[in-house]
Amino acid sequence: MAPIITLDRVSKHFVLQHHRARSFQDAMVALVKKQRSDSELFWALRDVTLQLDEGEALGIIGRNGSGKSTILKLISRILEPNSGRVVVNGKVSAPIGSDFPGPPKEILGFGLWPAK
Description:
By secondary structure, the chain is α+β, with helices and mostly antiparallel strands. The chain is built from two helices and five strands; from the N terminus they run βαβαβββ.
């Protein structure tokens, strides 16, 4: 069977700003004074390789910040990887689940329909 989802050496990072300007004026003053903001590079995924064939199921579990939502957003093309490639042979709906109120917040999901 042909793979319906392929992640090939996928990496995704985000820049976390620790001290942001509280106003436009503060941002302009920092720009003029050439003050550097205190930021950190957060790697949500590093060098992930995955292949899901037609008819297979995938469960993604892990702690907060371990990249579960990031993988689903990459598969559904909401995010682009910083490196590597994501190939999806089918139609994908957006991830659901982590933003609705009430337990359990760790449930995430998305829909995938094979290409025809």
